[in-house]
Amino acid sequence: MIANSPKDKYQLSVAPMLDYTDRHFRVLMRQITKKALVYTEMIVAQALEHKTGKKLLNFDEVEHPISLQLGGDDPKIMANAAYLADIWGYDEININLGCPSPRARSGNFGACLMTNRDQVSKCIEAIKKQTELPITIKTRTGIDHLDSEEFLKDFIYSLANDGVDRFIIHARKAWLKGLNPKQNRTIPPLEYDKVERIKALRPDLKIELNGGIKSPEDCIKALQKFDGVMVGRAIYDNPLLWKNIDEKIFDENAQQTDIKASTVIKGLIPYTEKHLSENGKLWDIAKHLLNLVHGIPGARNWRRKLSQRGQTAKASIQILEDAIKILEDSGM
Ligand SMILES: Cc1cc2nc3c(=O)[nH]c(=O)nc-3n(C[C@H](O)[C@H](O)[C@H](O)COP(=O)(O)O)c2cc1C
Predict the structure, then answer these.
(1) Scanning 12, 76, 191, 304, which has its CA 20 to 30 A from the CA of 170?
(2) Ligand 1 site, residue 170, Cβ cutoff 6 A
């Protein structure tokens, strides 16, 4: 077993999830954890070549520490995206080498780049000329028939030689032909042992585990063997399950604070007011609140009310104030 010492800075991260972990959800997560690293949804580097695409990079100061996830295969375009990430103030750059979607495949980025290590190396080299930000890789254990342990080892070791700072391994392979992205997150079996052996063989490499982690307890267990843990669906589906994670994982001596659904929403009020004043819609933020409430009498009713009122054209901050009141009355 590999002791996790000295402790890695980012022992827990919130996985990038397209259409879910947008900036509003990331600000919500900051009401729950100040320490976990958050990732942007994947941004296709090509989109940042255009003036209008640059707004994709905007984020709120409270989101730090934040990693920009890029998809792309063109060294010049990736380097330009990294340069912009540096100017915008991101803490890290993450290259997506795990997305199995047809769109990623047709653009030659994501998981299909696992078959083209040289191209990835060229991207890393070009990025390094533009920025000193840490570069991390999010990848799979293999793709299609390239799924041996030797293949994964060679892939990781060679990228480590290129200067990658950390590896986040979604511990299942991707089938590019035959499975859609959703199936690729459930059907190929999890292979924690494969990732564990790579970490054991190369303890000098920073390796984080991703895939199928369900609870803070799972994380703590995984941190005995890995440098970090990345969690996606189990965080989005139940953000409050992760309350006090900072104390549990990052600083066991810290005092636990009482984080509730109502306090999370209260914390979001100033941010929401700002969003509304900039012509944003309440629902952009309110849709992420639905999973804050689980297992209390009336939870379904609370969600239904918030959905109905929150999606109207004139939805105002009062809707959140009312939602908070109901929760406070039930001690939530
Ligand atoms: C709706 C959805 C969107 C996703 N979008 C991305 C993405 O943009 N970039 C990426 O690297 N992974 C993406 N993923 C994969 C997750 O980051 C993660 O690797 C996967 O869900 C496994 O982790 P989990 O079992 O903790 O959810 C997505 C997953 C989901 C469910």
Answers:
(1) 76
(2) yes
CATH of domain 261-329: 1.20.120.1460
Instruction: Pick from 18, 26, 231 the residue to mutate for probing ligand 1's pocket: most ligand atoms within 8 Å of its CB.
Output: 18
Does any ligand 1 atom lie closer than 6 A to the CB of residue 299? no
Could you tell me the distance, in angstroms and rounded to a whole number, from the CA of residue 29 to the centre of ligand 1? 16
**Domain map of the chain by residue range?**
12-250, 261-329
List the pLDDT tens digit at each of the 332 positions of the chain.
333 445 668 999 999 999 999 999 999 999 999 999 999 999 999 999 998 888 999 999 999 999 999 999 999 999 999 999 999 999 999 999 999 999 999 999 999 999 999 999 999 999 999 999 999 999 999 999 999 999 999 999 999 999 999 999 999 999 998 899 999 999 999 999 999 999 999 999 999 999 999 999 999 999 999 999 999 999 999 999 999 999 999 876 666 678 999 999 999 999 999 999 999 999 999 999 999 998 778 899 999 999 999 999 889 999 999 999 999 988 88
Question: Hey, which of 12, 19, 40, 185 would you mutate to test ligand 1's pocket, going by the most ligand atoms within 8 Å of its Cβ?
Answer: 185
Helix (H, G, I), strand (E, B), or coil: what is residue 72?
Answer: coil
219 included as an active-site residue: no
- Distance (Å, whole) CA 283 – CA 280: 9
Q: Which long-range contacts (CB under 8 A, 24 or more apart) does 310-314 make?
A: 310/282, 310/283, 310/286, 311/283
The three-class DSSP label of residue 255 is coil
Closest ligand 1 atom to residue 41 Cα is 8
In 141-284, which ranges are E strands?
166-170, 207-210, 228-231
Angle at 63 between CA 78 and CA 104, to 5 degrees: 35
Cα end-to-end distance, the chain, whole Å: 40
Rounded Cα distance between 242 and 256, Å, is 12
233 lines ligand 1 (CB under 6 A): yes
CATH 3.40.50.620 correct for 12-250: no
